[in-house]
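Hi there,

I know you've been waiting on this one. I reran it after we fixed the sequence typo, so this is the corrected version. Both the input and the resulting structure follow.
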Amino acid sequence: MKAILTFILSMGFVVALQAQQVQQVPLIEVHGYAERSIAPNEAVFYIQLEEKAMKVAEATKMLNTKTELLADKLKKAKIKDYKLVADNYSVDLNRIYRSGVSRDSGYVARQSLQVITNSKNEDLQKISEAIQEAGDMSFNLQFRVSEATRLSLENTLLTEALKNAQSQASLIAETLGIRNIRVYNVSLQEPSYPEPMVKMMADARFESSNMTIAPDDQKIGKRVFVKFTY
């Protein structure tokens, strides 16, 4: 017990000593930042499907039928350059609450679908019509910057953010008459991604035969925190 106590006290002394040493290091601390404005290059139709039945197989079959019907409608519309993605499939008990009492009444199957295409695709109107022709489907349209585009900017933005931090530190050192600064520590913050722009279109038909939507540019940023010592 005495040995353990001695060890704990020793570790506490070491940590305190290290903290004191860090405080004694002269530092220049700066944030470096880089940002780009970029036009969204993807249009994504988000569709939520839900079917209820007394048996799992029946609910699943109804859900699959809807998905297949949508795929068929999109194909027949001869839409260019798109992909249909299915995810987040689930089947749960259909639990109903009445007057504080729960009762199970069959099952509810759910499925998320995405129709992804280019934001400048001339067939956006056709896609919306195909979705509505496929049945009772609620959906919305979002415009976003694709993951591939964001990743292609990662290194460029990081380089610019680091140069920005270096420039600030150099200016501070020159102004204060400090010579020979050098990097002491670098922290990279999580990249800043814009929220997708949303155009809601739940259960609604467009009056115009030509959908023209021009989403605003979105900003993507990179931030670093750099400590320089001298």
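Quick highlight: The longest strand covers residues 101-118.

Best,
R. S.
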